[in-house]
UniProtKB/TrEMBL annotation:
PROSITE patterns registered for this protein in UniProt: PROKAR_LIPOPROTEIN
Lineage, uppermost ranks: Bacteria, Pseudomonadati, Pseudomonadota, Alphaproteobacteria, Acetobacterales
Leader sequence segment: 1-19
Organism listed in the record: Gluconobacter japonicus
Protein name: Entericidin
Region: Disordered, residue numbers: 31-55
Keywords of this entry: Signal
Amino acid sequence: MRKSILLLLALSVSCVTLTACEHHRTFGEKVRDTVDPPKGPIEKAGRSVDRTLGN
């Protein structure tokens, strides 16, 4: 039980640090989001993480 709480706490801290980064989308990213918009919150979050990490 204690390990699962620590794991949840670690995941939430890491997610907060990723969302705290402010990223200004480039022209290409804006075009991609217009032509091929994310289909749901999971894909939107995935694109955000990719852009934050520079992939």
